[in-house]
Specification:
Layout: H1 30-44, E1 51-54, E2 69-72, H2 78-84
Parallel strand pairs: 1-2
């Protein structure tokens, strides 16, 4: 029988997420994506080194919910800016 890996269940808000409310439409999943990204940042322990880059659109608001450095850039420029960073 295989040994199961030890798992830790975390309740509450990720440490790299703040209490700012995202102004998104009801049923929008942008908040869920932001939380998943913050959970991954916490799990990897990279909050001090993480920099978010967002383009134009609703997803640009997710940066306000994260306790990391975050920059919004013009439409279509996020990959180039992220590469430069």
């Amino acid at each position: 029988m295989k040994e199961e890996a030890e798992r830790t269940i975390t309740c509450g808000m990720p440490g790299s997420m703040n209490n700012n409310q995202l102004p998104v439409c009801p049923g929008c999943m942008h908040g869920v994506v932001a939380r998943c990204v913050c959970e991954a940042i916490d799990e990897l322990g990279i909050q001090e080194n993480a920099i978010g880059v967002g383009g134009v659109g609703c997803h640009a608001m997710t940066g306000g919910a994260m306790e990391i450095d975050y920059i919004n850039v013009a439409h279509g420029r996020a990959p180039g800016v992220a590469n430069g960073i």
